[in-house]
Amino acid sequence: MFGLFGKKEENKTNACDLKFLCWQCEMSAPGGCGSHGESKGVCGKDSTKSRLQDLMTYGLRGLSAYREHARELIDMNNPDERAILTEIDDVIAETLYFTLTNVNFNFDEHIAQLMKVGNAGVKVMDLLSEAHTKALGIPAPVEVTQNKAEGKGILVSGHNLDMLEKLLKRIEERGLSDKINVYTHSEMLPAHGYPHLKKFKNLKGNIGKAWFDQTDIFSKWNGTCVVNTNCIVPPEKSPKVKNYIDRLYTYKIVGIEGAKKIENDNFDPLIDQTLELPDITGFDSDEKLVTGHHYKTVLDAYGAKVLDAIKEGKLKRVWVIAGCDAPGKKRDYFRELALAVPKDHIIITSSCGKFRFNDVDFGTVPGTDIPRYIDLGQCNDSNGAVHIALAVANALGVEDVNDLPVSIALLWMEQKAIIILLALLSLGIKDILIGPNAPQFADEAIVNFLVENFNFGVISGDIHKDFGKELAS
Ligand code: SF4
Ligand code: SF4
């Protein structure tokens, strides 16, 4: 039904048609099992199961990122929070064990294990979301300046809100809040909605868009820059990194050659260098962005209004257009889709894919004050869309959340998107279209399973072909 294999066919340029690659054990064929076009390894593992095991480990990578952030924030003396963390850790360990040589050769049990990973993804996003709101307060919608900066400046990119709070506190402790301004980049944008971060008057605004514009933005930025989680661009990828490597700091697990590491939460070297650098110039735009629609905020502020608007026929459909941004024209599809969404529909988004269309003023649903653009936050806040859908289904007496007028288009790039997708599938969410490209780890058997069980697909590149009916509804 969907052109899942279109790109794969185009890309088939190698003499050998690689069906899988596994070289994890001594029994491996020379160069790795599958490296010469075989569809089965020496142990008997076939290419589909090998790919499903790859998918498991990709999901675990995304899961581990959220698990780490949750661990930084939760109270380990709280038995409930500790129990959830232990449950997640058990799934990580069990799933890694599952992928060992000669453990499991059963397709259905591979799917069941993937659903376990997805379920752990649901739990970790809820845990992290709770930890964020407990530590930083429940976000409120806020308008943020975009590409406007002054004074000495630190530009923070990544996802780690805890690190941002620690930095702001240290600047305050040193009596430098009037001298150093802090700005967000990419997935740090939602920081502005959190009350305990917003109270710092030197947390000023946002600069740039999604992670990959960092080489241009950091090159132009004459203050210091911090990347506190994944989605850093290394010098191996771009020569522009040398323009700012002496002003670039990384945090915890993040690292590239030549950048300085913030050790043991000591922000003083970063602050000291910022003071030595000239004031920021070249960022004086009048643009504004809106963020801060955590799902708790949405349910609290708009829950009853949304239900009324649905019942009165003023709100006809909810679109979830969310996920990772990456370079390339193909992702313009998601902007085109957002712009084509009718006025009596709303758009829920999260993650850095929102930068494809968050410059647009989508206004409110006619006859209501419900905003048509709702930014739930970072990628880990994607659980908010499910919470909103479940609350609406419950209030309307709709048994299956898939029966709600919801359309889902997800941008994917890396493994956090994979754990989010597995989480949605584990909740039984259907009719998801992802893009812009088909995952190369999926083969025909995996695709057939996803299509038959979840009506899952990949965007065609034509919004009317994919969503014509929904856009006209
Ligand atoms: S686990 Fe199986 S497929 Fe993987 S390298 Fe060993 S023999 Fe080959
Ligand atoms: S949403 Fe995805 S691509 Fe974007 S910064 Fe986060 S992890 Fe990276």
What features would you highlight for this structure?
single chain, 473 residues, alpha/beta, Substrate Binding Domain Of Dnak, Chain:A, Domain 2, Rossmann fold, 3 domains, eight-stranded mixed β-sheet, six-stranded parallel β-sheet, 14 helices, disordered N terminus, binds iron/sulfur cluster
Portion in strands = 5-15%
Unreliable runs: 1-13
Task: Specify Rg, calculated over alpha carbons.
Answer: 23 Å
For the record, give the distance between the C-alpha atoms at the N and C termini, rounded to a whole number: 22 Å
Biggest sheet statistics: 8 strands, mixed
SS-derived structural category: alpha/beta
Q: Residue-averaged pLDDT, rounded?
A: 95
Characterise this structure.
40% of the residues lie in helices and 13% in strands. The chain is of the alpha/beta class. Strands 7-6-5-2-3-4-1-8 form an eight-stranded mixed β-sheet, with helices on one face. Strand 2 (152-157), helix 5 and strand 3 form a beta-alpha-beta unit. The two termini are 22 Å apart. The structure holds iron/sulfur cluster (2 copies). One iron/sulfur cluster (SF4) binds at residues 22-25, 27-28, 33, 41-43, 45, 101. Belongs to the HCP family. Hybrid [4Fe-2O-2S] cluster binds at residues 159, 187, 231, 324, 352, 379, 414, 416. Its EC number is 1.7.99.1. The modification Cysteine persulfide is found at residue 324.
What is the topology?
Layout: H1 6-10, H2 47-73, H3 79-98, H4 107-136, E1 142-146, E2 152-157, H5 161-173, E3 180-185, H6 195-198, E4 203-206, H7 214-220, E5 224-227, E6 248-251, E7 260-262, H8 268-276, E8 288-291, H9 295-311, E9 317-323, H10 332-340, E10 345-349, E11 373-375, H11 383-396, E12 406-411, H12 415-426, E13 432-435, H13 444-454, E14 457-458, H14 463-471
Parallel strand pairs: 1-4, 2-3, 2-5, 3-4, 5-6, 6-7, 9-10, 9-12, 10-11, 12-13, 13-14
Antiparallel strand pairs: 1-8
The structure holds iron/sulfur cluster (SF4) (2 copies).
The site of one iron/sulfur cluster (SF4) has 12 residues, from loops.
